[in-house]
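Figure 6 in text form: structure in, sequence out.
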């Protein structure tokens, strides 16, 4: 069971930033708040998702090292008469590349459902419960119809 998804060596490898274990742990805590998962759940998470989580923590650790006020910022949208810019919900707390990596984690993806095309179903056996003899087996029909 890992304590973090990434190590200081991973941060150096992927983000070319030299950080210590404490900085990785702080980045881990931020990623944990976005994912709702902790490294103790590693045995329930696939290797592909673990890879994206490793990248997210590595990028977050490197980014946080250059953001000394990250935990003290406020989301201010206007001050007096000066212009201001508002970014995404995470722009003050989540590294841009970490956000990209998290979008690739299976449960954070596009949130769309893949519908199989007819050619993807060609070799699959269909099991339709409730078929009657009047319809061709495997033909969909509405309930009560």
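Output sequence:
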């Amino acid at each position: 069971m890992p304590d973090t998804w990434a190590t200081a060596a991973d941060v150096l490898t992927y983000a070319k930033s030299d950080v210590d274990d404490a900085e990785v742990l702080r980045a881990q805590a931020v990623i944990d708040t976005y994912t709702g998962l902790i490294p103790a759940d590693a045995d329930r998470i696939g290797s592909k998702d673990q890879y994206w989580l490793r990248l997210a923590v590595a990028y977050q650790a490197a980014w946080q090292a250059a953001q000394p006020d990250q935990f003290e910022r406020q989301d201010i949208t206007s001050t007096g008469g000066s212009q201001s810019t508002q970014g995404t919900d995470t722009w003050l707390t989540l590294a841009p590349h970490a956000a990209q990596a998290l979008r690739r984690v299976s449960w954070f993806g596009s949130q769309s459902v893949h519908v199989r095309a007819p050619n993807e179903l060609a070799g699959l056996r269909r099991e339709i419960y409730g078929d009657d003899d009047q319809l061709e087996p495997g033909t969909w029909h509405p309930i009560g119809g």
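Caption detail: Residues 59 and 96 are 8 Å apart (CA to CA).
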